[in-house]
Design a protein that fits this description.
Layout lengths: L2 H8 L5 H14 L5 H13 L3 H4 L9 H15 L4 H5 L1 E4 L2 E4 L12 H11 L9 E5 L5 H9 L4 E6 L2 H13 L6 E5 L13 E6 L14 H4 L15 H9 L4 E10 L5 H10 L7 E4 L5 E7 L9
Parallel strand pairs: 3-4, 3-6, 4-5, 6-7
Antiparallel strand pairs: 1-2, 7-9, 8-9
Helix pairs in contact: 1-2, 2-3, 3-5, 7-8
């Protein structure tokens, strides 16, 4: 990227059309596959203008303060900082969530966890208030989505990161469910005591990237997202082993557990839960790209002595 090319994108008085086109070219040359979309998001954010309006006002010219702000945001994206962190927001389950580098950016494919949780919740006895636990809640995305959909449910959400919990609380307040989610600091089940149990549904999107693979991921992930939320150990399965070993103590009889999984790990995750005694109603759900994405298991009383 030359200084001239960069200057043409962010010069006060430049038409939005030129600024947008130039920024998209720069981002594309940097290897960013969503260059045009990212340029639109950054420019609309700089202008405090909805993208829809931006696209019909392309002959408007950049003011001095707007150009300076756009230059700063564009430089951050060229450094491969994710768009969600730059604008501080991410949509999930049609909810507006605050995000920062303290939390993993919620992905659309994680919505399959919410769908699976809702399907299992619908199988509960009518009139029974559900108790739900979200392990490693991060931004609170899954817990908040479930709280919005299940009006009578009481939720607990744990995380080992206090900054992440602060963001999750903020998101719960912004989305009107703060009174129904108890946030707990600690590593997985260590955040809870026995008085919180049992839970009818436990959900978790644990770290599942193999340690050696993290540095080879896209820079937006490897350099910017919290490593603690990515690193699943040498084989990517450390957290599944811990969840499988510890969850029976916290899961109600007949309760269900939903976990997101990494690519190609379904068989290994199923084996881990099978070895822990979850012997029936074990299933794998695919995301909308056809990849194995979610494992569901149910703790049935007659499985406790199956072996």
């Amino acid at each position: 990227m030359s200084n001239l090319e960069y200057a043409e994108c962010v010069t006060p008085g430049a038409a939005l059309r030129g600024a947008l086109g130039g920024a998209a070219q720069l981002l594309a040359r940097a290897g960013i596959g969503t260059a045009r979309l990212d340029a639109e998001v950054l420019l609309s954010h700089s202008l405090a203008m909805p993208r829809e309006r931006l696209l019909i006002e392309l002959d408007t010219r950049l003011g001095s303060a707007q150009a300076k702000r756009f230059a700063a945001l564009l430089a951050r994206r060229l450094d491969r900082e994710p768009i969600a962190y730059i604008v501080g927001r991410q949509e999930f389950w049609s909810l507006d969530l605050a995000v920062s580098p303290e939390v993993l950016i919620p992905r659309p494919e994680t919505e399959r966890m919410v769908e699976a949780g809702l399907t299992l919740a619908a199988q509960a006895a009518p009139g029974t208030p559900l108790r739900i636990l979200d392990l490693g809640t991060g931004s609170g995305a899954v817990a908040i989505a479930l709280a919005k959909e299940l009006a009578s449910a009481q939720l607990y959400a744990s995380d080992s990161s206090r900054p992440a919990l602060a963001i999750a609380r903020r998101n719960a307040a912004l989305n009107g469910v703060i009174e129904r989610i108890s946030f707990c600091h600690g590593d997985l089940f260590e955040a809870l005591d026995d008085r919180a149990a049992p839970f009818d549904l436990i959900v978790a999107n644990p770290p599942y990237i193999q340690t050696a693979e993290i540095d080879g991921l896209a820079p937006e992930v490897s350099r910017w997202e919290p490593r603690i939320a990515l690193d699943g150990g040498a084989d990517g399965l450390d957290f599944y082993r811990r969840i499988a070993a510890q969850s029976r103590r916290f899961l109600a009889t007949g309760g269900a557990l939903v976990v997101e999984i990494g690519a190609g790990s379904a068989a290994e995750v199923l084996a881990i839960f099978g070895q822990a005694g979850f012997c029936r109603d074990i299933g794998v759900l695919h995301d909308y790209a056809g990849r194995e994405r979610v494992v569901t298991v149910r703790d049935l009383e007659n499985c406790r002595h199956a072996n």
